[in-house]
Each structure stands twice: as structure tokens, then as C-alpha cells.
Amino acid sequence: MTRTLIRDGLVITASDELATDVLIEDETVVALADPSISEGWTADTVIDATGKYVIPGGVDAHTHMELPFGGTFASDTFETGTRAAAWGGTTTIVDFAVQSMGGSLREGLDAWHAKADGQCAVDYAFHMIMADVNEGSLKEMETLVGEGITSFKLFMAYPGVFYSDDGKILRALQKGAETGGLIMMHAENGIAIDVLVEQALARGNTDPRYHGVVRHALLEAEATSRAIKLAQVAGAPIYIVHLSAIEALAELTRARDEGVNAFAETCPQYLYLSTDDLARPGFEGAKYVCSTPLRPTEHQAALWRGLRTDDLSVVSTDHCPFCFKGQKELGLGDFSKIPNGLPGVENRMDLLHQAVLDGHIGRRRWIEIACATPAKMFGLYPRKGTIAPGADADVVIYDPAAQQVISAETHHMNVDYSCYEGRTVTGRAETVLSRGRVVVDKGEYLGAPGHGRFLRRDTCQYLR
User: Which helix (H) or strand (E) holds 317?
Assistant: First the structure.
């Protein structure tokens, strides 16, 4: 048995801030105690956390490693992406396995297991993208829930690729209500967006900034409302992914005020970036093309308010990186061909800590939206998302005073640019433990592919 003792730090969870020591045996937290009590404890390794925070490892519930999109693939593999996650203090990711049109859920899930198995530096789980809702895939949902794949993503966008019509969405929601599977929704009116894309290109509006124009905020709001109403008809909960707009948030807030089990996440890019980035000169704006798109800066204050009021429950990254050279450039002369997605899995915890310093959220809320709530939402709590006896020893010694400048030159994601290039933030993960093993320590990477394990998840813990 290996024992690790973390001494003299401030332990921060979603519910508490305590000056307490943490004892780990092998892969599990076994005790927390006041330093006067833990004084007699012995350990193989003692970590001095004086002046530091001791926080749960981050849980990023929305990543896309190796995702095929727009004729190319997301540039992070499970090996490079989870290593970058560890550098940023995230110790669990939930990625998306993809069902192909005409294929089964099982085939898609097996393909993603093959990509990830033996490659991950930190623990991982899967959601299931349902691209082809039919009697067979609906029947498979029940089997997959039993195997710990307890959430299923559908798209109101991308006709001809991932799109599901209202009838298919309703059927999936009904099956979710029956099986306990949580339906996650990409809420944009893809049919209307395609008309606006066609019209924009016909006018010669080809620059990246038009990506944000055609994916109108009202089309996100309409789809968000429609998704929630369909969920109500089905008697099912629903989780809206990457919510970006004031109008969509208003639809969500209204439903939650009426007692509807509607949940949503937002992402750091919507909190820190805007259409000003999409409109950068030349083709530079292509770096900022993602869907839902970046919005004007006035949307940011509403999103921060939604996080404070818990109408927005989670901050995930939607990490889906494409290199500027050779990948984003596929859309030169036609914004609709720019691969949609941004890198961010390494930056989330630090950007949210900066939000604490900027007064947007409190320290416990930081841990709640980045660790505890995603773990509860997707059936991983209290194994993940907290520091408590019995929890996995996913623990980060976080230096709240360390300054860093975010840059592609120093990040560890496998992508040739940073969305936050040159931005100074305060706070950094100093030592990162994944199930008791130190994987990052004071600027040195000590992890290895294959350490990360697949996690079978329970159903959403907000519905019990």
C-alpha cells in the first residue's frame, strides 16, 4: 500500500473551504483531518501545500478527441488530449463516441473504445452521439445505459451529417425517460441556418465572421425552446450543450423557473471571446469558428449571471481542435467549410480561476461548475468531482498566485494556435494526481498513456 499525505493546504470543494490535510492510500482518498490530528500520520510521500489550494481534479464533460468533421479530424488524439488535460488540472474527460449513419451505436462505441484504450493519461468516459435514430438504435440505448454509457447527444444542426428531426428527437427523449439515459442537445435550427449560409455565400459573404452571422442567436433560442418543449412532452430531462446566447439562456431560465428538468452548460470561449475575434483581419477569424458560434460581448455578462444563479450548471470546453494550417484553411474562400471547433481542455480550470479573481464567481462555485456538478450530472459523483473519503484520489495542488501567459508556444494541446494567445491569467496547477499517481509536478510531466481508465457511469444524479 502506498500512502500520500498532502499537508497544510486549503481544501476547496463545492461545499467547503477547510484548512485540512488529505491522506491518500493507493488510488483513494481515505481521510481528511485538521493538521493537529494528522500530525502523527505517516506516508511514503508528503506533499507540502502551504499557501496553495487543494482541489478536486477537473471534470470536463464535453470533449472531442480525434473527431471526424468537415473532411478532417480533430488534431488531439486521446493521448495528446488527455495529457494536455492533466497539465491543466483536469483529471476526467467525457468524450463523444459517434454512431455513423447506417451503423449501430455499438459499432460507434467500439470504434471509440479502440481509439482510447491504452492511450489516456487520465480517466475517461463516453457519451454517445446518435446520428441515426431508428428502432435499432433506440433499442440499443437500454443496453448501453447498462454498460455505463448513460447520455446520448442529438443534433438539431448539421443536416445531412448529424441532424435529427423533431420526431426522432421525441422518440429518443421518450427512450431516455424510459431508460434513465440523459439526452444532450445541440440546439440550433440547422435547416434555417443552411438557408442563411446559402444566401450569404451567394452574396459573396465568405469571410469567417459570417459564420457568426448565419448562426443567428434567435435560431439557437428557437431550438433551445423547442428541445425543452419536446422533452416536456416526453417527460424527460434534457441537457443543452454549449449554450452561448442571451436569448437561449432566457428560454432555459424560463423553463427552470417553471420546474422543468432542463440543464445546460456553457464554455470558456463564450465567456471570454466574442464576434470581435471572428472578425479578425484576413483569415485569422477562422481560428475562432465553432458552433454554437461566438456572440457579441454583451452576451458574456448574461452567461456569467446564469452561472451565478445556477441556470447554467456546468462549464465544459467542447474541446475540438483543428490546426490553423491545413485544417482551418480548408475554409479559405468559404466560411462554411471551416472545421467547427476550438482547443481549450488545458485552459478551462485556469480561466475559471481567473473568473474568481475577477469577481464573476466564488471559489466554491468554481469547483462546483468545473468538478462537482459535471460529475453529478453524468453519474460519476462522489468518485469524481470532490475530495472526500472513498473518492478517487484525483487531486490538484493549485497555486492561486502563479501568473502565466497563455500561448501556443507553451501549451500541450496538439494544435498550432491558442484562442487565448497572450492572455495573462493568475493561477496554475502545480501538482496533479490522477487516482493517487502524480502525473504533473512543478512543470514536469510524469504521466503515461494507459494510466487513464474507462469509467462506467451511473445515470444523472440530479433526477433521483
Answer: none
* Best CA proximity match to 313, nearest among 234, 404, 249: 249
Cα separation, 464 vs 460, whole angstroms? 8
> Angle at Cα 328 formed by Cα 325 and Cα 331, nearest 5°?
120
Residue 70 C-alpha from the chain's centroid: 21
Q: What pairs with residue 12 in β-bridges?
A: 17
Mean pLDDT for the chain overall: 97
The grid cell for 99 is: 454512431
Phi, psi dihedral angles at 351 (to 5 degrees):
-65, -35
Provide the β-strand partners of residue 440.
432, 445
User: What is d(CA 417, CA 406) in angstroms, rounded to the nearest whole number?
Assistant: 10
Q: Look-up: residue for cell 431508460?
A: 179
pLDDT digits (tens, 9 = 90+) for 350-394: 999 999 999 999 999 999 999 999 999 999 999 999 999 999 999
For residue 463, the model assigns a pLDDT of 79
Q: Which of 344, 352, 264 is nearest to 53 (CA)?
A: 352
Mind giving me the DSSP string for 87-151?
A: HTTEEEEEEEEEPPTTS-HHHHHHHHHHHHTTT-SSEEEEEEE-SS-SHHHHHHHHHHHHTT--E
User: Distance between CA 211 and CA 277 in Å, rounded?
Assistant: 12
Q: What is the three-class DSSP state of 383? A: coil
CB 371, CB 385: distance < 8 Å: yes
The residues near 414 (Cβ < 8 Å, ≥ 6 apart) are 75, 76, 77, 80, 81, 84, 321
Q: What digits encode the pLDDT tens for the residues 233-280?
A: 999 999 999 999 999 999 999 999 999 999 999 999 999 999 999 999
Residues in contact with 123: Cβ distance below 8 Å, sequence separation at least 6, in sequence order: 91, 92, 93, 384, 392, 394, 434, 435, 452, 453, 454, 455
Banded pLDDT at 70 (limits 50, 70, 90) = confident
The pair phi, psi for residue 452, each rounded to 5°, is: -65, 140
| Distance, CA of 266 to CA of 243 (rounded, Å) | 5
What are the grid coordinates assigned to 108, written together? 460507434
Helix, strand or coil, per DSSP, at residue 250:
helix
Helical H runs in 189-346? 190-202, 209-214, 217-234, 246-257, 268-272, 275-278, 298-309
Q: For position 165, what pLDDT does the model report?
A: 98
pLDDT at 284: 98
Three-state SS at 182? strand
Cα gap 6→8, rounded to integer Å: 7
- Give SS3 for 154: strand
Q: Report the side by side order of strands in the sheet with 45-48.
A: 28-33, 21-25, 3-7, 45-48
Taking residue 181's Cβ as centre, other Cβ atoms within 10 Å add up to 25
